């Protein structure tokens, strides 16, 4: 690409270094065609309105949760001696710690609300019907994963409320016939809630579920791209 100005959608880039870097990528991977086709020339259907924003808002909140969660991990210690104290420190001593923690805990509530609104919109407008029924199933998986993230994250501050909520949350599946007792034991990592439970919930909350959720969101978005946004009702 030997040009003075690089045109990317509505943007005109004149910086020589940026043009040379972009050209190097474009020569090897054909990036310009992908960016033009997938981003700038993708037409958003005119019928999409306010209620169509909630999938995107849920996605934005997921990214925000991942970023604020990484910042919280800088100070948080997942031990029953230190968990509560480190959360108190984040709130009272770390600069803007209150903002990061507040965004993370409010974000988790908000994300469930926006997913519910997104789901109700898809249901009411009948978008779950063929050929999008598989994406509905992927969506339900995302709802369950997000609930799993909220449940495991709730224990981490190790407060009375967190402890007793986890007692209830781990006691409930124990009512299932045959497998209930095993599920409770596996969730708690023993008979009682303690250090093993906290370690287990921490690992599931910061590694396992975020990685699975990010992959399933990818699958959700690929399906939307393959099938296109549904037409008006
Ligand atoms: C982490 C949770 C989720 C994220 C980040 C997410 C994200 C998105 C985005 C960005 C879109 C495209 C724009 C739109 O139509 O809103 C979309 C569409 C869709 N979502 Fe979700 N979603 C989530 C959960 C769900 C749930 C719980 C369901 C249903 C059970 C669902 C079912 C669908 C379907 C069927 C479409 C296709 C809409 C169409 O083709 O017009 N999603 N989602």
Could you walk me through the main structural features you see in this protein, from its secondary elements to its overall organization?
With 233 residues, the chain is mainly alpha-helical. The chain has 2 domains: 6-40, no CATH class; 50-227, Cytochrome Bc1 Complex, Chain C (Up-down Bundle), CATH 1.20.810.10. The protein is built from 9 helices and 2 strands; from the N terminus they run E-E-H-H-H-H-H-H-H-H-H. It has helices at residues 16-29, 31-40, 54-73, 83-92, 97-124, 133-155, 160-171, 180-188, 195-227, and strands at 6-8, 11-13. Strands 1-2 form a two-stranded antiparallel ribbon. Strand 1 and strand 2 (11-13) form a beta hairpin. The longest helix is centred in the C-terminal third of the chain and has 33 residues, at 195-227. The chain starts with 5 loop residues before the first strand and ends in a 6-residue tail after the last helix. The model has no long low-confidence stretch (mean pLDDT 95).
What are the bound molecules?
protoporphyrin IX containing FE
For the largest sheet, list the strands in their spatial order. Answer: 1-2
Radius of gyration: 23 Å
How much strand?
A: under 5%
Task: Give the strand tally.
Answer: 2
| Broad structural category | mainly alpha
**Gross morphology:** globular
Q: What is the CATH homology-level superfamily of the largest domain?
A: Cytochrome Bc1 Complex, Chain C
> What's the CATH topology name of the largest domain?
Cytochrome Bc1 Complex, Chain C
What do the pLDDT scores average to?
95
Main sheet: strands, sense, barrel? 2 strands, antiparallel
């Amino acid at each position: 690409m030997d040009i003075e100005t690089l045109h990317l959608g509505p943007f005109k880039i004149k910086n020589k270094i940026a043009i040379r870097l972009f050209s190097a990528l474009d020569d090897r991977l054909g990036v310009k065609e992908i960016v033009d086709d997938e981003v700038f020339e993708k037409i958003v259907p005119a019928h999409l309105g306010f209620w169509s924003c909630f999938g995107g808002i849920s996605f934005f909140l997921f990214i925000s949760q991942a970023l604020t969660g990484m910042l919280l991990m800088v100070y948080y210690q997942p031990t029953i001696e230190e968990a509560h104290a480190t959360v108190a420190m984040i709130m009272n001593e770390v600069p803007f710690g209150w903002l990061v923690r507040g965004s993370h805990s409010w974000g988790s509530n908000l994300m469930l609300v926006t997913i519910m609104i997104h789901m109700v919109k898809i249901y009411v407008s009948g978008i779950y019907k063929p050929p999008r029924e598989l994406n509905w199933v992927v969506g339900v998986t995302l709802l369950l994963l997000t609930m799993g993230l909220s449940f495991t994250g709730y224990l981490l501050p190790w407060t009375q409320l967190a402890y007793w909520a986890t007692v209830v949350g781990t006691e409930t599946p124990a009512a299932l016939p045959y497998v209930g007792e095993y599920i409770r034991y596996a969730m708690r990592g023993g008979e009682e809630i303690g250090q093993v439970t906290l370690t287990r919930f921490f690992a599931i909350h910061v590694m396992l579920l975020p990685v699975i959720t990010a992959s399933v969101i990818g699958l959700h978005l690929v399906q939307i791209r393959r099938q296109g946004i549904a037409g008006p009702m």
